[in-house]
Design goal:
alpha+beta, about 325 residues, four-stranded antiparallel β-sheet
Amino acid sequence: KKEQNKVKMGKALVFLSFALLCSCSLSASPGLEVTISESILSKAWQAGVKVALPQLQSLSIPDTSGKTSTPVGSFDYTVSDVQISGFNIGSTSIQLQSGQGVELAASGLTLTVNLQFSFKEESWPHIKTGASATVTVKDGSATIVVLPTSTSDGHLQLSLTSRSVSLGDFEITVDGSMSWLYNFVESLFGGQSKGACESAIESAIDGQIPQLNTYLASLPTQYAIDMWQGSTVTVDYSVVNPPTITSSFMFLDALGGFSVDGKAKSCPYKAPAMPQVASGSDVQVYVADYVENCFLYSLHEGGLLTTTIDDSMVPSSSP
């Protein structure tokens, strides 16, 4: 039985070490600190774009109206049924801004805008006409700056500090052969309608942040490990400080606490200040002896380091 307890204890310690290292991909503490490079964050940004892209495939733009003068007279016009579709991104990039946040950029944006126009001549005989147009945007860009913070319940959270969208060159196909109509649509999209499309994409970006924060809030901040004697040790790796951002790395801090069978004991040891030193690796984890000491203290307080030796455990050859 004694040997079985040793085996169970060894396995539990291995699982505990693995859990600490893996869980720190999201956070670290006064005893646990994770350094994440700009390269890893760039891969995360690329993955995030793939998830968000389907939600940007169909955007509607509010109707607009106004007056315009043409070679054939003055008209009141209405632009309606403006739909953005076929949204694609050419490339992405990321830049860490020391003390400010993370700049996420996307370039080579392409999309299609379908529009409906209706016209009514101001003077008699008040001729009415309509047309449709398709606008293909060849190049565009978007820039987002987010600031990672921490919540009171130990989760990461993103705050959107700025965002901008710029649609570049475009081609227009107008249903009809009237040259003045083509020139009008080109002029209108280059100004009012283009700005409305950019605002719609920015609003869609705004809507992605709460969804992402909801996902971050759903991530666990504790990990339970089955120990010997039927007990369970729970590792608490809640985020305790807002991440620190430099020009090349992001540092994450978390609690690194323990409880046995749901009973948490205040650790008597003091957590040291973590060094915030980047060695050049994409991801590195610092584990202070504070964590090990608190783990052993929790086991002791939970009675998991106590055993009873009876006669059956003593070799018969023993004096």
